[in-house]
Amino acid sequence: MTMYMLSVHHDGTADFESKTMEELQPVFEAVDRFNSELQEAGAWVFAGGLEPIEASTTVDNTKGQALVVDGPFSESKEFLGGFWVIKADDLDAALDWAQRGSAACAGKVEVRPFQGDTESL
């Protein structure tokens, strides 16, 4: 099995902070059901939702001295909202999980395999 990262991307028009808990609850419930499906299928490794992009801090130590800046790495209307790390037999299986995850979280999902041998992880 290969490990894949399913990253959830939102665009700036998805203003979650203005939504009420009542509006968000169906998404939370759908994601919980999806998480349970992953776990029951043995595909679950771990997952996490991220705080809003404004909570980001960027660290650049490429020139020998760390520069720490409040804010995201790049200014963009799109942002990473969360992710799943899963195990799947192949890309087709990972894409199937991504389709279900996208529907559950109401966001676009990027699928990327991990490098190298992930069998021992």
UniProtKB/TrEMBL annotation:
Q: Name one Pfam family in it.
A: YCII
- Note the Gene3D superfamilies from the entry: Dimeric alpha+beta barrel (3.30.70.1060)
SUPFAM superfamilies assigned to the protein according to its UniProt record, in alphabetical order = Dimeric alpha+beta barrel (SSF54909)
UniProt domain YCII-related: residue ranges: 15-113
- Where are the membrane-spanning stretches? none
The family line of this record is: Belongs to the YciI family.
- Tell me what this protein is called: YCII-related domain-containing protein
Gene source species? Nocardioides jejuensis
